[in-house]
Amino acid sequence: MLKLFKVKKFSIIVLPEETSSEPRSIKISFAKMMTYIGIYSVIVFLLGFYIISFTPVSEVLFPYSLRLTESDKKKVEILNSKVVFLAKEIESLKSVNKRLKFAIMLGDSTLLNEPIQQKDSIISKLPVEGNILRVFVKLFDKIFYNQKEDIFFIKPAEGFVSRSFDPERGHNGNDYSMKENSPIFASAGGYVVFADYTTNYGYTIIINHQENYLTKYLHCASLLKKDGDFVRQGELIALSGNSGTESTGPHLHFEIWKDGKPIDPSKILIKF
User: pTM to 2 decimals?
Assistant: First the structure.
């Protein structure tokens, strides 16, 4: 090895395949040869580093799964499970939103003023269970919607009004301050067209009444009625709560709509 470093020059002999050609000799110094080898090694290293770092070749040579630690793999599994859960939640919210839009649509329609034969086609679309409920729906329909008296509304719960109707600021009803799990009653008789949880308003129940009236009960703790149920005026329908992202404390947010527009509950509620 030491003798190799003492050599000052090397001769490289090139032997052609054709026997008629003479061999060629190239002389090169040891220092120059080592310089060429060093430059070539650096170029090869930089080229390989670039290919591995900035091209898809690295994914083939070193799959991502092989580069993950056990801790990283667990994090990936947790993230995947969260993605699946969120996807299911989104699908659930889409279903709720469709039903909520349908409930609001009923408030804009003349459904409850039309003959029973026409109304049955819409009522049949509501998610009811079994044929017995449908029989009761038709029975109460004749009793309720054929009455000659004008519709009137009663206070839906005990408690004082902590915030009044103010549509200019986006507050379309009255807030009744009360303890959680206080009883909430139907302000008037009608059909439940929506009863479910929404992100903003929590547990919500919406009742469709005659003469294109709609009442909404928001931020409940629990619902005692389901879609398609017929309720009488003063019947227990839910318990007050503090659900939904827009709730600021235990209370009931109560709205009355007429022909698709909110009206001031204080001007229409019957005072006893």
Answer: 0.52
